[in-house]
Amino acid sequence: MRIPLDDSVGVIVDVQTRLFPYMYDSYTTQQNLRTLIAGLQLLEVPTLVTQQYTKGLGETIDPINKAFDHFEPIEKTAFSCLDETTFATAFENTGRHYLVIAGIEAHVCLLQTSMDLLQAGYTPVVVEDATSSRRRNDKEVAIERMRHAGVVVTTTESILFELCRYSGTDTFKALSRLVK
Questions:
Q1: pTM of the shown model
Q2: Which are the catalytic amino acids?
Q3: CATH number where 137 lies
Q4: In this structure, is residue 5 part of a structural domain?
Q5: pLDDT tens for each residue of 96-106
């Protein structure tokens, strides 16, 4: 199954100031998130951003919120994005069926969101190298569980070129510069 550009939406989950510094391999995760966001914008994929209980966990970290041309996070208190009415409505309004998901934490919000999306008939695509948890094992077990359940697991570079589909275009050249 190929992930179609015109039926995909990006979802960046809870990359917040009071939580992100404690993530396993946070530097690499942040770099990949920035590349993913830049690539999704280049490909004109609509992207939703969530913040879990902003009062307690803080705002989205600057390198991520500044990566967006227009940054407007969706506040949530539910672990699953689909359980948050504002998110569910914003997602439904895109009319798309494939969700390219990255952020934190893999074993809580990304896992629950992905499972709910599968149950609702959507295709969650988790970008493994732009995803983390505080503990490496929590992330690894979550990725394994998601994969076993039918979630598509990929990497930043792979999904961007899959969405692009063709080399030799200006978009391909711009994406190539991003992933170098």
A1: 0.95
A2: 14, 76, 109
A3: 3.40.50.850
A4: no
A5: 999 999 999 99
